[in-house]
Design brief:
Blueprint: H1 9-14, E1 31-34, H2 36-39, H3 43-46, H4 48-61, E2 65-68, H5 76-86, E3 89-95, H6 97-100, H7 113-121, H8 124-140, E4 145-148, H9 159-176, E5 182-185, H10 201-207, E6 215-218, H11 219-226, H12 230-237, E7 241-246, E8 248-249, E9 255-256, H13 265-272, E10 279-282, H14 290-303
Parallel strand pairs: 1-2, 1-10, 2-3, 3-4, 4-5, 6-7, 7-10
Antiparallel strand pairs: 8-9
Helix pairs in contact: 4-5, 8-9, 9-10, 12-13
Length: 310
C-alpha cells in the first residue's frame, strides 16, 4: 500500500508549556494493573477457577481495572462477565501476546529468545492480521483499546523498517475502528534508541501514524531506551499517549516495584494531567511475589493521587 503521512506537529506543540493542553488538570485518572503481573505466560495453565480468583484479588487490592495480556484461552464473554461482577474495568487488551508463546522453544532460553519470538509475531504483515483476528475478541471483552503488545527489534533497525511498521499500524487502526476500538501500541526500549540519523523510532512512528492511534508509554522502557525522564517524554508526545505502564527502575537500571526505584511518579502524574483521559496500569514483570508487588504498588501510587477509588 502507499505510505500515508500524518503530520501531528500541532498536537505536539500543544503539549508544550502554554500550548492548547496547558489547562486545568483533568480529574483523577484510573489506576489498573496489567494482568501479566499476576499470570505471566501461564494464564491458561492456571485453570479458570484460579484465574477468576486472581481477578478477585485485583479488585480486593483496590485497582479500578486491568489490562489483559491476551486471553489465555478463555472466552472473552466469560472474562467480561466475571470482571463486571467484581466492578473491574477492562479498557485494553494486548494483542499478539498469546501468539508469542507459539514461537518460544523449550527451555533453557538464551538472552535473546523472547525478542526473537517477538520478531516473528510482530512483523508488519502479522500486525495487520492480528487486528483482524484479535480485534473482535477485544471488542467482546468490552475493551476500548486493542494494544499491539510489542514490536520486537527488527522493526526499528532502520528508518525504512520503522516506516513499514508505521504503515502496518495505520492499516491495523483502520481495521479495528469499525469495531468501536482504538488501536494502541506498547513501546519498549528499541523504539527510544537512536536510529543512524539520530531520530528515535518512537518519534517517527508518532509523526507518521494517524492521530487516532494512542500509544502506551511504559515509563521504565522509555527511560531505559532513550535516557529521557518520563515527564519530558509525556510533554513531548502529548495526547498521542493514551495509556501508561507504571514500573520503576532501580539504580542498576533493572525493573523494580513502583516506589522502590528512582523514577518520579509524582512528576509523571503531573505531566499526564494535561492528557485526554489517560489510563495507568501497574506492571511488575517477574515479581517474586506478584500479590505483594501489586499491593505495594497500589498503596504507593494511591498516596500520590493515582486511581479513582477513595
Amino acid at each position: 500500500m502507499d505510505r500515508r503521512r500524518f503530520l501531528i506537529g500541532a498536537s505536539l506543540a500543544a503539549a508544550a508549556p502554554g500550548g492548547a493542553l496547558a489547562q486545568a488538570p483533568t480529574p483523577p485518572a484510573p489506576l489498573g494493573v496489567q494482568f501479566f503481573t499476576f499470570v505471566g505466560r501461564n494464564g491458561a495453565a492456571m485453570g479458570w477457577d484460579r484465574y477468576s480468583a486472581t481477578l478477585e484479588t485485583v479488585r480486593g487490592i483496590g485497582y479500578d481495572g486491568l489490562e489483559l495480556a491476551g486471553f489465555s484461552g478463555y472466552e472473552p464473554a466469560r472474562i467480561r462477565k466475571r470482571a463486571d461482577e467484581l466492578g473491574l474495568d477492562i479498557p485494553s487488551v494486548h494483542i499478539g501476546f498469546d501468539q508469542v508463546g507459539g514461537f518460544l522453544p523449550p527451555q533453557p532460553w538464551g538472552p535473546d529468545t523472547f525478542s526473537q519470538a517477538q520478531d516473528a509475531v510482530y512483523t508488519p504483515v502479522a500486525v495487520v492480521q492480528l487486528a483482524r483476528a484479535r480485534g473482535p475478541l477485544t471488542r467482546d471483552v468490552g475493551a476500548r483499546y486493542a494494544t499491539v503488545a510489542a514490536g520486537g527489534r527488527r522493526n526499528f533497525r532502520t528508518l525504512d523498517d520503522v516506516m513499514r511498521f508505521a504503515d502496518a499500524l495505520n492499516e491495523a487502526s483502520a481495521i479495528v475502528r469499525p469495531m468501536g476500538l482504538s488501536l494502541s501500541f506498547h513501546a519498549h526500549a528499541p523504539e527510544f534508541a537512536r536510529l543512524a540519523g539520530g531520530e528515535q523510532p518512537m518519534d517517527v512512528l508518532v509523526r507518521n501514524t494517524e492521530p487516532a492511534i494512542r500509544y502506551e508509554l511504559d515509563v521504565y522502557w522509555s527511560t531505559l531506551g532513550g535516557g529521557e525522564q518520563p515527564a519530558d517524554t509525556i510533554a513531548r508526545l502529548g495526547d498521542r499517549i493514551g495509556l501508561f505502564h507504571l514500573k520503576d527502575m532501580d539504580r542498576e537500571k533493572k525493573i523494580a516495584t513502583p516506589g522502590d526505584g528512582v523514577l518520579d511518579f509524582a512528576a509523571i502524574k503531573a505531566a499526564a494531567a494535561r492528557l485526554d483521559s489517560p489510563y495507568f496500569f501497574v506492571e511488575r514483570d517477574n515479581a517474586p511475589d506478584p500479590v505483594d508487588a501489586a499491593t505495594r504498588s497500589y498503596a504507593y501510587l494511591h498516596r500520590l493521587g493515582y486511581g479513582l477509588r477513595a
